[in-house]
What does this fold into?
Amino acid sequence: MWMRYNLIGIERDAFGPWEGPDEKPEFGPSPGFSNLKWLKPVYEGDTITFTRAVTGHRPLASRPGWHLVTLAAAAHRADGEPVMSFENGVLMKTG
It folds into this structure.
């Protein structure tokens, strides 16, 4: 479900208006994820909130104009209790 909502958000943002200072960034593939933790079980009827936050980025020497963006992703129950977490990366073309 996290990936489904992540892709819906990216698609929504890709076609929405861009208000950033430079040209709109282009997202590329993801090299994968790490540190996946299933912290608590999720039950039918649970309301889950998914989050992601950028934790860093670096330019890629092998792909001029592209950066590797690292993210922390998580899922929480309605009461704030974490149920899942992981780190992932995504390639992003800038300017």
